Amino acid sequence: MPHDWDATTYDRLPIPMTGWGLQVLERLRLRGDETVLDAGCGTGQVTEALRERLPRGRVIALDASPSMIAAAVERLGADRMTYLTQDLMDPIPIEPVDAILSTATFHWVPDHDRLFANLAAVLRSRGQFAAQCGGWGNLERVNAAAERAAGIDLLATKVYATPEETWTRMEAEGFVDIETWLTEAPVELPPDELEPYLRTVILSGEVARRSPEEAEELVHAVAVELGEPEIDYVRLNIVARKE
């Protein structure tokens, strides 16, 4: 079972994923009457923009975190929305959709073969697919700081795939017109936001396994070791459609 998130703090922080997600949304060519799955909706910031593009359609907002789903419900309400608390490692219990959008989610899923099989199973023939997640080389500097400060390998629990690996997995599940590429996207945070950002976003899994006191010590140690408040993000971009 994935750990839950601090959705309130997540929504307050200068999260770059929202801006990236809006760019990914622009890669979908929507008429406005489709049903679209947002696979990893978080607190619903990008989902809100997706719904605006579907005045005659609807959105299925999926996330594994109950607190994220609760925040999305509070933000978006019920109009043209369906909410699903669901792990992407498991088959998705919905009827086929016209398109799938996903931002900042896939790297949290430990088995990408199962991930793409589950997504392919709920996408209609000729359906569109646009996604972005952490890719090969993501957070190497931050991970090195965590290893030095606390002996933690953050990369061991994530899948930061290469474009080639992802293309092969998607082709095997019946996707066509596949495009996959990496984008370097470093983010410099305000110094006073570094520790909240590490606690809520980068180290959230480690924090969830510790007492509050131990978690604070961990976050502070990694922040000190990191020094400059820059997060070395590398994004894996995916565009495709179902055969």
Write the layout of secondary structure elements.
Layout: H1 7-12, H2 16-25, E1 35-39, H3 45-52, E2 58-63, H4 66-76, E3 81-85, E4 97-103, H5 112-121, E5 123-134, H6 140-150, H7 163-172, E6 175-184, E7 187-188, H8 194-202, H9 204-208, H10 212-226, E8 230-231, E9 234-242
Parallel strand pairs: 1-2, 1-4, 2-3, 4-5
Antiparallel strand pairs: 5-9, 6-9, 7-8
Strand percentage lies at: 15-25%
Series of secondary-structure elements, N-terminal to C-terminal: HHEHEHEEHEHHEEHHHEE
The N- and C-terminal alpha carbons lie at a distance of 32 Å
Largest sheet: 7 strands, mixed
Number of alpha- plus pi-helical segments: 10
The low-confidence parts are none
Instruction: Kindly state the percentage of residues in helix.
Output: 25-40%
Shape: globular
Gyration radius, to the nearest Å?
A: 18 Å
Strand order across the largest sheet: 3-2-1-4-5-9-6
Instruction: Give me the count of strands.
Output: 9
**Helix and strand composition category:** alpha/beta
Multimeric status of the protein: single chain
Q: Please tell me the overall pLDDT.
A: 93
What does this entry look like structurally?
Helix 2 (16-25) packs parallel to helix 3 (45-52), helix 6 crosses helix 10 (212-226) and helix 8 crosses helix 10 (212-226). The chain has 10 helices and 9 strands. It has 243 residues and is α/β, with parallel strands linked by helices. The strands form 2 sheets. The chain has a 7-stranded mixed sheet with strand order 3-2-1-4-5-9-6, sandwiched between helices. The model has no long low-confidence stretch (mean pLDDT 93). It has helices at 7-12, 16-25, 45-52, 66-76, 112-121, 140-150, 163-172, 194-202, 204-208, 212-226; strands at residues 35-39, 58-63, 81-85, 97-103, 123-134, 175-184, 187-188, 230-231, 234-242. The radius of gyration is 18 Å and the shape is globular. Strand 2, helix 4 (66-76) and strand 3 form a beta-alpha-beta unit.
